[in-house]
Specification:
Strand order of the largest sheet: 5-24-23-20-19
Helix content: 25-40%
Number of helices: 13
Low-confidence stretches: 1-7, 32-48
Shape: globular
Largest sheet: 5 strands, mixed
CATH class of one domain: Alpha Beta
Strand content: 15-25%
CATH topology of one domain: Rossmann fold
Mean pLDDT: 89
Radius of gyration: 24 Å
Structural class: alpha+beta
CATH architecture of one domain: 3-Layer(aba) Sandwich
Number of strands: 24
Distance between the termini: 44 Å
């Protein structure tokens, strides 16, 4: 068969590996086998390999004057540093990395993704109501009762406690990846206190300020209404007796990325940012202390404090970032906690494997977003299978977060695998295993040129019990080291602005100067 030469990529992508040379799906470059449709846009107007959605962006970047993307990257870093947009890495506060090359999601694919996220949150909301209520899903054998009751995040003392409006999941952060076939899959659910929304807002503000020319030709969904929508969801959660609900953001304080997010969201919503020492419970009613003024009754607490640190009367022996009597006020129906205490059971990576079953059970629907294939190590035959091919799988502690505790079998030596085997055999309930998922890649500025780096996506879903709303785009996280699949900022990851297109048609090329 005669050789067919592939035309060169645009100069700005010179040296960029073509998808043929990578197992991962590249979001910006198409392969001949990718086809068309959501996430599989055809090759664009004379730019071989560049997807339709990225064509204008690539041309604009190629025409940037001066230092091009390097100058823009430096300006973005300065802006984040000046505004205190930082994160902790190796004990130091550093500017949160924002890559100047955005990630783009077309309108058709976003519609499907948003519908799948909303479906998932509805089912998880029903699961939590059931687990802390009649536990019918356990009685029917859809989710094993032992799996629920053995989870450290399950709080038996909350069975029978119903929030004022019945809503437990006011804010959800659902981590989504794209596999090597281009299929979007849910990697994990975060229903306790999902973080990162403020980074998504700050990333967009930085990009529109520093790189406005990159948006030319694109109709990008705005993200700036997130704080207002979040406030509306929180106010809707208030007890019915509250005619003009008072909302506070409860923070443990300190410095760094978490504190920055708490401060930003409180400021944008126009509500007080408080610590536990600013609050007091009297007669099962929560009050905000105000210097020199009468105390103000609080109706809703958007708490960014973990369950076990909220109330020493409920969680004995724990340091307190909340206030004594808080859970008593919740039991009396006088406050709403967002998100609800006890939601961590739904974040458990073992329970995660049953979410598609929950969707069928509660909603009678086909799951719109598949999970990542997962081996349940507490099931004897599945554990035996996982232990027989440890060098092929990724092992994750079910209570792990932020990339901590994960063991990549293909890169682990015999000693590490031996210790891991002992841990799994000693505590099979504490582990799941998954195949290595080659997360999709997006061009990312590395040094002075663009190179593929793996990404995931954390969309944020708001839920008031009547409807859900998904922040367009959310936070794209980037694994910055070459070949790394760990995107968490605590492990050295960065971020991208995520553009959701509002126009179903391909973007227009930028106007000629």
């Amino acid at each position: 068969m005669p050789r067919v030469d592939t035309p060169p990529l645009p100069p700005v992508l010179a040296g960029y590996p073509t998808p043929r040379r990578s197992r991962a799906w590249d979001e910006a470059l198409a392969r001949a086998a990718d086809g068309s449709g959501a996430g599989r846009a055809s090759v664009a107007d004379g730019r071989p390999g560049v997807r339709d959605t990225y064509g204008p962006l690539v041309r604009t970047i190629g025409a940037l004057p001066g230092g091009g993307l390097l100058d823009r990257a430096a300006a973005l870093a300065r802006r984040h540093a000046d505004r205190g947009i930082t994160f902790a890495l190796e004990g130091e506060q550093r500017p949160f990395p924002l890559d100047p090359f955005p990630r783009i999601v077309d309108a058709a694919e976003w519609t499907v993704l948003a519908q799948g996220l909303a479906q998932r949150v509805r089912a998880l909301e029903m699961f939590l109501a059931d687990v802390y209520g009649g536990q019918q899903i356990m009685a029917d054998g859809v989710v094993p009762a032992e799996l629920v009751t053995s989870c450290p995040q399950f709080v038996p003392g909350l069975v029978g406690l119903v929030p004022p409006t019945g809503v437990r999941v006011h804010v959800a952060g659902i981590d989504v990846i794209r596999d090597r076939t281009g299929t979007l899959r849910v990697l994990e659910d975060n229903l306790r206190s999902p973080s990162g929304a403020s980074y998504a807002l700050e990333n967009r503000a930085a990009m529109t300020s520093v790189t406005p020319e990159l948006f030319e030709g694109y109709a990008v969904a705005p993200v700036g209404d997130y704080p207002g929508r979040l406030l509306a969801v929180l106010r809707a959660a208030a007890p019915p007796t509250a005619t003009d609900p008072t909302v506070v953001v409860l923070t443990p304080g300190g410095a760094g990325g978490a504190a920055v997010e708490h401060e930003l969201l409180a400021r944008l919503m126009g509500v007080p940012l408080v610590r536990g020492t600013d609050l007091v419970v009297r007669d099962s009613v929560l009050h905000l202390r105000r210097a020199g003024r009468t105390e103000q009754r609080v109706d809703v607490v958007y708490r960014r404090v973990d369950d076990e640190y909220l109330d020493p009367r409920e969680f004995d022996g724990r340091p307190v970032h909340g206030v004594a009597g808080l859970m008593g006020a919740a039991r009396a129906g006088n406050i709403a906690l967002a998100n609800a205490v006890g939601n961590g059971i739904a974040d458990d990576k073992g329970v995660y494997t049953y979410v598609p079953d929950m969707i069928r059970y509660y909603l009678g629907e086909r799951p719109l977003l598949p999970n990542v294939e997962t081996v349940r190590c507490w099931v004897p035959e599945e554990r035996a299978d996982a232990l027989s091919r440890m060098d092929e799988l990724v092992f994750k502690p079910v209570e792990g977060y932020g990339g901590h505790g994960i063991v990549f079998g293909p890169s682990a030596d015999d000693a590490v695998l031996g210790r891991l085997r002992a841990r799994v055999e000693a505590d099979p309930r504490g582990w799941v295993a998954q195949p290595v998922v080659d997360l999709s890649t997006v061009p990312t500025l590395v040094g002075d040129r663009l190179a593929p780096r793996h990404v995931d996506l954390r969309p944020f879903v708001l839920n008031d019990g009547r409807s859900t709303w998904v922040l367009p785009g959310g936070l794209t996280r980037v694994a910055l080291p070459a070949d790394s699949l760990v995107v968490n900022s605590a492990q050295g990851g960065g971020s991208k602005d995520t553009w959701v297109l509002t126009d179903p048609e391909p973007p227009l090329p930028p106007a000629s100067p």
